[in-house]
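From the pipeline queue, job 12 of 40. The input is one protein chain; the requested action is below.

Action: predict structure.
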Amino acid sequence: MQITGPTTSRALASPRSRRLDRSLQRGARKGGFYVILCLVFGLFLLPLFWMVLSAIKPPGLVSAYPPVWIFAPSFDNFVEVLQGQDLLLELLHSALIGIAAVGIGLFLGLPAAYSIARHRQQRLATLLLVTRMVPFFACLIPMYLVFKAVGLTNSLIGIAISHLVITVPLTVWIMIGFFEDVPRELEEAAAIDGASRIGSFWRIGLPLVTPGIVAAAVLNFIFSWNNFQMALVLGGVDTKTAPLAVLAYTGTDSPMDWGGMAASATVVVLPTFFFVLFVQRYLVKGLTMGGLKG
């Protein structure tokens, strides 16, 4: 005869209870993680949200206190920004400077990274690291004096060259790890077949580190596009870049136009925002994988 009682029922129910408790604990941990993630993500997005909100507010509500959250959106600020200054030309200037800075930075940085990775040139790597750590605006006065002496002030190529202080060290430090992952056996086999060191670099090294090159190019372009100080000091009226468009609404000669400032900042941010959305797959791939697949 089988005897059942409260003890037997609790024993039968305990595995289910333990599984339920574990599921609840996993759900609580997962929910807490997503709550913290949303809070951090919202903290970083709050300035962007406030900028866009101010850009679409009617002029009388931009600086209202307390802030007005419910209103009829207005695009007068965008119309004023696009008609009041040569913003499209300034966007073109930023694009040309960014492309030039990225191209020259890759042209100089890729061979340097390859040399450091293959020949263990620690002194050169340390020098580039120090260059990367030094605030780039510390070089502005020497650059201005040199560029003025050679006639490169108020020129797009001069601003692009100044951005090499950012693009070259960043390219080198991103690409060293990728080149170190390329097996030396492949280059030795190419040398046996008669390939030179430059040929091995061009035909073997570069194709295997393409994800890293894409990541370095994207980050360099973003840094170049967003740079403000170098264009302000080394540029001029004919070479204004997109970030300088915001400066026209800071109230130097007239009252500060918060709506126009927010609208111009939104227009300046949008190209890089959509650019990063378009290349984010390649950017994440380049930053997370090595030089070889599998």
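Job complete. The chain has two domains: 6-55, 76-288.
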